[in-house]
Amino acid sequence: MPPTATTPLGSRDKLFAAAAAEFAAHGFAGANVDRIARAAAVNKAMIYYHFESKAKLYRQILCDMFHAVGERVRIVAGSDGTPEDKIRGFVEAIASEAEARPHFPPIWFREVAEGGTHVDEEVARDLSGIVQMLAGIIQEGVGAGRFQPVNPMLVHGGIIAPVMMFFASKGLRERLDQSGARIPHLERQQVVEHIQRVTLGVLEGKLS
Amino acid sequence: MPPTATTPLGSRDKLFAAAAAEFAAHGFAGANVDRIARAAAVNKAMIYYHFESKAKLYRQILCDMFHAVGERVRIVAGSDGTPEDKIRGFVEAIASEAEARPHFPPIWFREVAEGGTHVDEEVARDLSGIVQMLAGIIQEGVGAGRFQPVNPMLVHGGIIAPVMMFFASKGLRERLDQSGARIPHLERQQVVEHIQRVTLGVLEGKLS
DNA sequence: GTCTATAAATAGATAGAC
DNA sequence: GTCTATCTATTTATAGAC
Lengths: 208, 208
What we know:
The structure is a homodimer of 208-residue chains. Chain A has one domain (58-203): Tetracycline Repressor, domain 2 (Orthogonal Bundle), CATH 1.10.357.10. The first copy, chain A, has ten helices and no strands. Chain A has helices spanning 11-30, 33-40, 45-51, 54-78, 83-100, 104-113, 121-143, 152-168, 170-178, 188-203. Chain A is globular. The first copy, chain A, starts with 10 loop residues before the first helix and ends in a 5-residue tail after the last helix. The mean pLDDT of chain A is 96. At the A-B interface, helix 1, helix 6, helix 7, helix 8 and helix 9 of A face helix 1, helix 6, helix 7, helix 8 and helix 9 of B. Chain B binds a DNA duplex (18 and 18 nucleotides) through residues 10-11, 32-34, 42-49, 53-54.
């Protein structure tokens, strides 16, 4: 049972949240269970009581992350809007999931860098499901004569990569700012709208 | 003196190459100096002889990486092609640097995820220099009446993110393939040309 | 469910011979 | 420049009391 306004966070949930932040900031290998326990204000032994090991805890977080994104995308793909609406909805879904779980973009970047070492069958299904659903939206648009056929992986990369990069690089951009680098500022809404427009432009064949 | 066809790799260069691969695969914290030494077929103590510490070795690799990319981009920005040529050249430069140094995309993703913890002043200069040069190319195109003014960071993210993602996710895509996920295949050239076309479309105002 | 104390393994780093 | 042996700190994990 997830915590609500009336049920305070139990030790399990507090550890889960602290671990997500720790893994995002330091990666799997760099994450420290003592630090997780301290941040959660829960005894370290509780990690092993609830999650069995650092690795299983990490996998749990990965699973939760991609399951949530998959569900969110499923709603968009299954809605009754136009293909254009669904593309916009897909971009917005990824962005708002990234915002709701700040650990999502950094953990995903690290997982990509690591070649998906920790990606088990369940996560793999969620991941490919997301691509399949995007491919379905494109197919729908093509069938309706509104989209050009474009390799779904090109479209996928054109959305996921910059959205994740925007959120994951927040810390680095601030750091560069303080180093005196005059990097133009970016706003969330600006980025989302840009990617929506570009993706639709690609699919509607405005670039040829 | 860098190694050439006639000068075989010294222990320093062998360690450098092995370390780059190790950091790419496991991250800074996850990298293991014993493994680096073994992969380089060089004694572990030589790491400390040549580089002083694991951290300094890592910074050296970061520096080298961004310095090379910066130089490459400088050549493109300073060439005498049209702004369109330079945009295409910029994309190609990033892609071919990523290909020449397979450790570049994964290390960069990890560094972004970590908020640039290991980014020192020198690397910060190279990084912001790359953005400035891209901004300069855009400005040039705007001045010539060929480009619309677009926030350089939007353009930058639209290039760097998907190019890095394409190269960094190679291992993960293979992994998903073997998990039975039917993910469409992507070819390097296809990706580069797509991003070139999209970026020019954005700058030439084809999307409004 | 929670906590203390500690086992057991790993890994960064160095001394010192050659 | 290279190598062996080793020191030391860190860290995952568990046993066992409450």
